[in-house]
Amino acid sequence: MSKPNFEQTLEDILEKNLPQEELAEVKRLLYGRELDFLFLPKWNGNQDLDVQGYDMGGSITEELRPPRIVRVGLIQHSIVLPTTEPLKKQRNALHLKIQKYVDYAATCGVNLLCLQEAWAMPFAFCTREKYPWCEFAEDAENGPTVILMSELAQRHGMVIICPILERDSANGDTLWNTSVVIEKDGTVIGKHRKNHIPRVGDFNESTYYMEGNTGHPVFETSFGRVAINICYGRHHPQNWMMFGLNGAEIVFNPSATTSHTSEPLWSIEARNAAIANSYYTCAINRVGTEQFPNEFTSGDGAPAHHDFGHFYGSSYITAPDGTRTPGLSRSKDGLLVCELDLNLCRQMKDFWCLRMTQRLDLYARELNEYVQNNLIPQQKHMKQQEKDSKKQ
Amino acid sequence: MSKPNFEQTLEDILEKNLPQEELAEVKRLLYGRELDFLFLPKWNGNQDLDVQGYDMGGSITEELRPPRIVRVGLIQHSIVLPTTEPLKKQRNALHLKIQKYVDYAATCGVNLLCLQEAWAMPFAFCTREKYPWCEFAEDAENGPTVILMSELAQRHGMVIICPILERDSANGDTLWNTSVVIEKDGTVIGKHRKNHIPRVGDFNESTYYMEGNTGHPVFETSFGRVAINICYGRHHPQNWMMFGLNGAEIVFNPSATTSHTSEPLWSIEARNAAIANSYYTCAINRVGTEQFPNEFTSGDGAPAHHDFGHFYGSSYITAPDGTRTPGLSRSKDGLLVCELDLNLCRQMKDFWCLRMTQRLDLYARELNEYVQNNLIPQQKHMKQQEKDSKKQ
């Protein structure tokens, strides 16, 4: 198997090779409705940044309710310095780079911005080493990364979702994988802790932190009701579901995932969640290959090595009708800007009726029985079924 | 918007236009692992049948458990006669055509076969007319379609999933949308009734039948533990989930869905379910455009018309690791044959740990609270969250 060329996205390959008419049909099948581009100011920074802007469209103009238009921005990026540099230098370099991206996102009119998982550090959980990496953890209200983002949120009047490695000093110095929600006035209005923790491939995150204890909060912000399904939680449809039941209109999925582990699944899960729950989903993945000083093994029989594999970016947004944007670059930092009408969420509930036909009482009952009985599976034959249905 | 050319599948367009290396990468991104072809005997019937065979692979050879290899077959097809013909002629013509396909599937070594939703009739629910269409409904044990399939199951030693419109004469002549499970000795071992009924576009099925009362049964057959998620149920992740919790290794999704309504979503939902539940999913869609004698409207402001739109086939199978087959034809009848190792289900549970990290107790509790309270959404701020987490 030859190594993938991450310089090209799927969309690049299709656009380069397909005749116009067939390209249009392939895009319809793969992405849904055709999207208009947004006109965005030019990026003038030094960094090679993939900037893409789309108008998601798809909503109708209602007579009795005005449109609720917001601009969402997603930032994906690589680390800046080698992981062997002093931690403070590593973090400062990331802060500096991302600050420029946030300032630029503001010029693009972004109201609601989300960064990638644990964005102010390398994704060091592959190493299984506690130090120095645990030092990157910081307080969810007063840590340096949240303070920086709080300043930027206030400066730009922007809601920012800031995923960090959290140090919970008030509770036994516990670590959590957390996303902090900052209002446009700079106030931290809440946080969510990652609900599902992976033990797959080099994702040894259960070595560092436990399953979150914040449930499924939805945050009423100045720009819509938002929730955060962190990384591996995207494989869990119930996680997406509960955010939907709690009223989310946009669910962000800040992630860090590698090509070998998940790239063929990446386009499926966040998009399925948007369809099933009639809300917008925003999937963000980190970029690049991170090298670590000490070698480690991956439990797959291969020799010890120093890197986690390639984080393939490809961040994208899906509308409640299942239409999605192309993905950002697979190798470069990027900013994806999307103009959305939040009214489309309720319009899709009216159209597809998925909430109305969801039969939650049935699932609450069956799931409870399943959990309480430690599973007596429903595996039975017709005669038994008929007895049951006559009882009802 | 130009009308799609249903003669070409997505895969046709990609294979025709992409250079070899880029084609391989596009296929990896869109489908996962590369699949080997199965060698199948030639189809000699008159009907133009799209026959495709794949070895799904992906499993490892375990030391303490032998492989559990089965061949699954999916049949997609159009109706035979115009809907204006006498009902008995219409049904007989379908019986005759499908019987030939089943006989051929047997020569391909198929152990476990599934047909499309309500396969022995036109999908007349767009009309909202009760007669003559309700006459197609038949008994789940003694109806002519089940009797035919029972004979074929016995003749070929094949398990057959036979979706019908069910007439429940013993219970007030109720109609259900049902799939009957027939063992390889011809015995009807059970049935499942469609759990989620659409009210979208021309899918006026709630005019004809109600939400099923059979829960989420999994059928222990000679060729693995199977369940059936009928059509619109594929939009409901909880439906897929409960079949998984009840032990399903293969979940069939017999469907009837049209291009305009769902084609860009088709590749997402059944595939997502395979990933999330570590089982095989088999999505089957009917083929062709069905004309009805009386005109009807679609609630979309368009003029009255006589057809439901184009059923686009595209049946496909997904493995528990997310790898999927190409789709069958978008315009022709087809048989998809896949050789699977059922052991891959448990292997993927061990690899991804999605069952282990599922936190069902959390969801049972939250879902129950949601249903009992008629929703008090979890929308709160940090101070409240901290109070809650200290309580735990």
TrEMBL record, chains A, B:
UniProt-listed PROSITE patterns: CN_HYDROLASE
Domain CN hydrolase, first and last residues per copy: 70-342
GO biological process, one term: beta-alanine biosynthetic process via 3-ureidopropionate
UniProt keyword Isomerase present: no
An MF annotation (GO) of this entry: beta-ureidopropionase activity
InterPro entries to which the protein is assigned, alphabetical: Aliph_Amidase/BUP, C-N_Hydrolase, C-N_Hydrolase_sf
Family: Belongs to the carbon-nitrogen hydrolase superfamily. BUP family.
Official protein name in the record: Beta-ureidopropionase
Protein source organism: Frieseomelitta varia
